[in-house]
Design a protein that fits this description.
Blueprint: H1 2-18, E1 28-35, H2 42-61, E2 69-76, H3 81-93, E3 98-100, H4 105-117, E4 122-123, E5 140-141, H5 147-160, E6 166-171, H6 174-187, E7 197-200, H7 208-215, E8 221-225, H8 228-240, E9 246-249, H9 255-262, E10 270-273, H10 284-297, H11 305-323, H12 330-338, E11 343-344, E12 349-350, E13 364-368, E14 374-375
Parallel strand pairs: 1-2, 1-3, 3-4, 4-5, 6-7, 6-8, 8-9, 9-10
Antiparallel strand pairs: 10-13, 11-12, 13-14
Helix pairs in contact: 1-4, 2-10, 2-11, 3-4, 5-6, 8-9, 11-12
Length: 376
């Protein structure tokens, strides 16, 4: 860990000297993204990007931002921090204007020091980790609620119905530990602690030991903090071993991807959400998103929580760009985003300020059905 931190500090120091100043090029605004487009977490990156691109295409079709079109340059990191850091340096070296839509906690933690050293905005990462939010970072803007918010809501619901033995299955990295910290934090005021733990390595589905160790503690419910394939493998294995309790997941799992991975075994699995329900026009924002998707892909459009998050993050960034004024620089974008006080995107609110870069605390709970649907 010390060696990794030293490498990141060295990279960040080099970035401050070597990276060119970010700029908005004549005729276009180039954004950089590193995300998982291959590997076990690829559905998250693919769907987030699709949702963001829906919004950017819509804006570009109406003249862009002050006549400049928005271009998203995306690189695949496979949900691996080292690849993400290399991608981020490449993007900054190329002169992108801002970094947008990074996928995951360990990858975002590798990228943020580089963005900060280059004084480049880092907007809308698909992660709720507190380590990216505290201490305050002038360049980082979070559109979604945190994992502390999500796990607090999960624990609140479980304990409200008398369930106190709550186990945690978590990915053995910064993402999983952030979720574990959230569950532990929510249980502590109630005089409780996690009733058993199980871990899995990132980008694997080797869950047998985790199932054995966690079920030995006899939990009544299990909160999962991992990606969809490992969570699905754990659910199937735990049920086969006789576990009859309820499974809860945080939003990063990828709701639709988890449902598809589980098939009929998805029945009764609960997932916390940080975005509005995307399957019906229950809000003006969801209606706009659905209309944009159907206009672009017709009946092939597949609405889901990951892509609406990309759409919402892009919509927030675009509003910041519009408020940045005619002289578009990283500083004016930051000022534009910080001016978004209680911005109503259509039933979903984003609230930024000069010392407040976490835009939302919205959390909803949904449940999966055996036929792959998501119910509120």
């Amino acid at each position: 860990m010390k060696r990794r931190d030293a490498i990141l500090r060295f990279a960040a120091a080099g970035a401050a000297m070597a990276f060119p100043a970010a700029r908005a090029e004549a005729g276009r605004i180039v954004l950089g993204q590193s995300a998982a487009f291959t590997g076990p977490a690829s559905a998250l990156g693919e769907q987030f990007k699709k949702g963001a691109q829906l919004l950017f295409d819509r804006v570009n079709a109406h003249g862009g931002i002050g006549g400049r079109t928005i271009e998203l340059q995306s690189l695949d990191d496979g949900y691996e921090p080292d690849r993400c850091a290399a991608n981020t340096k490449k993007l900054i070296d190329s002169g992108v204007f801002a970094l947008f839509g990074y996928i995951g906690t360990p990858t975002s933690l590798a990228a943020l020091p580089l963005a900060t050293a280059a004084k480049m905005p880092f907007v809308g990462p698909f992660t709720g980790a507190e380590a990216l939010r505290t201490p305050f970072n002038r360049y980082a803007f979070h559109v979604r609620a945190s994992y502390f918010d999500e796990t607090a809501e999960i624990v609140k619901q479980l304990t409200a119905v008398g369930i106190k033995r709550i186990g945690v299955f978590y990915q053995n990295d910064s993402y999983g530990k952030a979720g574990l910290a959230g569950v532990t934090r929510a249980l502590k005021p109630l005089g409780l602690e996690p009733a058993g733990l199980g871990t899995v390595e990132r980008n694997t589905a080797a869950v047998d030991e985790a199932v054995k160790s966690l079920l030995a503690s006899k939990p009544d419910a299990i909160v999962q903090i991992s990606a969809y394939r490992s969570c699905a493998a754990f659910i199937r294995a735990a049920r086969k071993a006789g576990f009859g309790g309820t499974f809860y997941n945080v939003s990063f799992v990828g709701t639709q991807a988890l449902a598809q991975e589980l098939g009929a075994d998805a029945r009764g699995v609960v997932v916390s959400q940080v975005m509005p329900y995307p399957y019906t026009p229950a809000t003006a924002l969801a209606g706009e998103y659905l209309a944009a998707g159907k206009a672009a892909a017709g009946d092939k459009f597949d609405p889901n929580y990951s892509s609406i998050e990309g759409y919402v993050a892009a919509k927030t960034l675009v509003e910041g760009l519009r408020r940045a004024g005619s002289k578009l620089t990283p500083d004016t974008l930051i000022a534009g985003l910080e001016s978004l006080h209680e911005l109503n995107l259509g039933g979903f609110f984003v609230d930024f300020g000069a010392q407040k870069h976490t835009g939302s605390k919205f959390v909803d709970l949904t449940i999966l059905t055996a036929d792959g649907r998501v119910r509120r």
